[in-house]
């Protein structure tokens, strides 16, 4: 719009100068002038009509017909063209030299402006120019939303309704090509954003579209090709936008020490995308149990698997076997311990298969040195972190500054972090009765090999932090009470997500909302180091907590239980179906021992 206004202003000034100083047009040739203007106007108008008839859709939602008309300066050209014909005609009728000269100037201007609008319409309605035009429109809507919508929340998505209407129309029509174009448009200019508010809205939109298109493929009969072509672009756009947000907010943090933004806001966004990806993966796996050849579900699995891996690689400061190219986002990965823990907590949701890699990243960010052990062989990442920097990060090791210590103290210490992350992983484990989709038998996210399940538990349980049953019971009491004064990883994650949360699509749950997972976490930890204390803890547990832990263990830790999961923890009839207390304790510990062998 600024270019068009400048062009019209320049041409208007030229018209005034020509009218004042231009050579007089002979009066007997004045008729030729308005006929020439009318002819040029008709020719350009006809060309516009042909272009619009071939390329434009008057009923299009994105872009709307008005968006195209305004973008190519068509109203300005129509006004100038109409004025040139009227002024030239008036000069012919009245014979006034000044009016005739003004008509000449307007005819020249409308000719130049007409060619400009025709070239703009050809550019806006086809090829690479169309993609750039639509990306510009998307950025315009985001800027408008940034000016009007604060805070940035999904409930305010009516501010970007024009773009979202185009997405919904494409989903309703099953138009894969249009969805691919929308995914390209929203991420094309993300690295050119200058306002953090615009970047936040872009991240809202990218995250929402990952979930919306995934849901449509899984449950609304949208073809699986939509996931294949759109989701990788959206995930890559999230990486680019999150890094751009860090670029824009880091200078503010450096200028004002009280503004502790750093990488935290970007990490919340990346974590939310990882949660959405994990949810889509588990939902697709569930559908594949009903139909192993569900094309849409298989496309979702393929798309999100590569997406989560890509996020982990870019978050890692020094990923093994992966080399960043020039211009890639996050050239040095995450460096803020708090941001890394916020992201890692989200990665643990829904049974993330990259949690082990996340722990290696945690070791490097907290201590400043990579961990070279192998948790598959019993090496404990968390114990090595404690050896290097202590329980609360009081020893700096190779990372100077107080950030690691401040973060760990806000979480209640490294032991509390390890227990809460383990509970999050256990709560998100899939149904162990599910069979892997064809072609994914060796994938740890789907394999029925018990070694993979054992690794999900042992990567945390090898960290010895519960000395006896009383200590485990005390941790359960404090965790499930969810006291506001109690420092915890969940409280830190919840506070940062509430402040910088960019979407409310998937609810977050605290360890207090997952008592069965918390109980299994404590039992597995004791069983790894002190089996007798694990039985003592089981005897100390109230019956509802014991029953809930047994049902979760039946669901996610074994495929051959004595009975199917009941999932009626709080009903008396449900307790009766689970058997006596002694039978429940024996079955629960038997399941855990079989997994941890």
What does this structure look like?
It is a single chain. The chain has helices at 2-21, 30-55, 65-71, 74-94, 97-124, 127-148, 161-173, 176-188, 196-219, 225-255, 264-290, 295-315, 337-347, 355-367, 381-389, 403-411, 414-427, 450-461, 469-481, 489-500, 515-529, 531-540, 543-556, 572-578, 581-596. By secondary structure, it is mainly alpha-helical. Helix 1 packs antiparallel against helix 5 and helix 19 (469-481) runs antiparallel to helix 21. The longest helix has 31 residues, at 225-255.
Any chance you could write out the topology, listing elements then pairs?
Blueprint lengths: L1 H20 L8 H26 L9 H7 L2 H21 L2 H28 L2 H22 L12 H13 L2 H13 L7 H24 L5 H31 L8 H27 L4 H21 L21 H11 L7 H13 L13 H9 L13 H9 L2 H14 L22 H12 L7 H13 L7 H12 L14 H15 L1 H10 L2 H14 L15 H7 L2 H16 L1
| Fraction of helical residues | 55-70%
Principal-axes shape call:
elongated
Fraction in beta strands:
under 5%
Helix count from the secondary structure assignment: 25
Short characterization:
The chain has 597 residues and is mainly α.
Descriptive key words:
elongated; 597 residues; mainly alpha
């Amino acid at each position: 719009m600024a270019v068009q206004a400048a062009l019209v202003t320049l041409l208007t000034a030229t018209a005034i100068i020509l009218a004042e100083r231009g050579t007089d047009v002979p009066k007997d040739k004045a008729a030729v002038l308005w006929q020439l203007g009318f002819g040029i106007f008709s020719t350009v108008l006809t060309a516009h009509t042909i272009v619009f008839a071939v390329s434009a859709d008057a009923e299009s939602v994105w872009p709307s017909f008005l968006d195209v008309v305004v973008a190519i300066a068509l109203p300005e050209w129509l006004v100038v063209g109409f004025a040139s014909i009227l002024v030239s005609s008036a000069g012919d009728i009245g014979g006034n030299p000044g009016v005739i000269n003004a008509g000449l100037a307007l005819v020249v201007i409308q000719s130049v402006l007409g060619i400009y609008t025709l070239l703009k319409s050809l550019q806006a309605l086809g090829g690479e120019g169309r993609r750039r035009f639509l990306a510009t429109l998307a950025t315009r809507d985001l800027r408008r939303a940034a000016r009007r919508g604060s805070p940035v929340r999904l409930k305010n998505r009516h501010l970007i309704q024009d773009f979202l209407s185009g997405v919904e129309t494409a989903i309703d029509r099953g138009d894969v090509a249009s969805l691919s174009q929308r995914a390209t448009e929203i991420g094309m200019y993300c690295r050119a954003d200058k306002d953090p508010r615009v970047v936040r809205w872009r991240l809202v939109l990218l995250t929402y579209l990952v979930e919306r298109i995934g849901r449509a493929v899984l449950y609304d009969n949208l073809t699986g090709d939509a996931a294949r072509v759109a989701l990788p672009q959206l995930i890559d756009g999230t990486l680019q936008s999150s890094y751009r947000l860090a670029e824009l907010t880091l200078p503010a943090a450096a200028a004002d020490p009280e503004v502790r933004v750093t990488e935290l806001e970007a990490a919340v966004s990346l974590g939310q995308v990882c949660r959405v990806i994990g949810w889509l993966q588990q939902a697709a796996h569930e559908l594949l149990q009903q139909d192993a050849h569900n094309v849409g579900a298989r496309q979702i699995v393929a798309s999100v698997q590569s997406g989560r891996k890509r996020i982990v690689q870019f978050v890692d400061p020094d990923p093994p076997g992966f080399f960043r190219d020039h211009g890639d986002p996050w050239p040095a990965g995450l460096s803020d311990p708090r941001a890394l823990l916020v992201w890692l907590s989200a990665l643990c949701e829904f049974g993330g298969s990259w949690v082990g890699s996340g722990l290696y990243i945690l070791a490097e960010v907290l201590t400043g040195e990579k961990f070279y052990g192998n948790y598959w062989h019993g090496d404990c990442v968390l114990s090595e972190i404690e050896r290097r920097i202590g329980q609360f990060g009081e020893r700096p090791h190779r990372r100077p500054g107080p950030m690691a210590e401040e973060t760990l103290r806000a979480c209640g210490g490294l032991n509390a972090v390890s227990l809460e992350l383990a509970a999050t992983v256990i709560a998100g484990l899939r149904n162990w009765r599910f069979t892997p989709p064809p072609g994914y038998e060796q994938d740890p996210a789907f394999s029925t090999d018990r070694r993979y399940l054992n690794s999900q538990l042992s990567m945390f349980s090898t960290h010895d932090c519960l000395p006896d049953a009383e200590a485990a019971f005390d941790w359960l009491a404090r965790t499930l009470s969810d006291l506001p004064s109690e420092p915890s990883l969940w409280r830190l994650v919840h506070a940062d997500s509430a402040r910088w949360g960019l979407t409310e699509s998937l609810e977050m749950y605290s360890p207090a909302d997952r008592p069965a997972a918390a109980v299994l976490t404590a039992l597995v930890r004791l069983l790894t180091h002190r089996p007798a204390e694990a039985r003592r803890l089981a005897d100390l547990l109230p019956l509802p907590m014991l029953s809930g832990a047994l049902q979760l263990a039946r669901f996610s830790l074994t495929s051959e239980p004595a009975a199917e999961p009941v999932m009626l923890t709080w009903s008396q009839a449900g307790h009766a179906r689970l058997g006596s207390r002694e039978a429940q304790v024996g079955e629960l510990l038997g399941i855990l021992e079989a997994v941890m062998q």
